[in-house]
Amino acid sequence: MHLRTIFSVFGLAVTALASLNTSREYQLHTQLKPGQGTKKKFDNLWLVASHTGAGLNDAVLYTNQSSGIKGFMNATNITQPNGQPYFNQLFDLGGSFPWGLIIADVNFYSAWEPVRINAGDGQPSFFFNSSGLQWTENPSVPADQNAFGGWLVCDWWHGVPQLFAKWSYYHYENPSSCADVNLLPIYI
């Protein structure tokens, strides 16, 4: 009887995770933005969650697609100006709950912030356009006034490239160990 209860609870948890998935699954990979020919090592990298604590991960990037994590979208009740919903960017890392993408606002005076993949729903206001995954920190502000300035990949403190979000209001040159990238989905 006890074993049947465990399987029932596990089945409900898996069903709950699957019900959050409102899109086709994909993996996210980098596409180097033009004009950065010396930074080819940041092109075609695959998003991976690097464990930093219980329920906590930094977003890092590996060269092999087989390491890339599976992502999906969950529609929010917030809509874009075009009437389409914004989404939570979620990942299936195994287990019974989603892992959400988070732009970690850890330093209000930084030109870029670390990106996390933590247990839970993450942040709302993600969407795809022709340049890949995008985010808005304030859905009520027009896209051209958005503080999100794109994705940055840097050789930082994990020994592999790490993902950061740039703020558009800073106009600094990237460090030599960083490159501007798009995050594009490859559907599974």
TrEMBL record:
Domain called DUF7907: residue spans: 23-186
Keyword terms: Signal
Pfam families: DUF7907
UniProt xrefs under InterPro entries: DUF7907
Signal peptide range: 1-18
Protein name per the record: DUF7907 domain-containing protein
Record organism: Aureobasidium pullulans
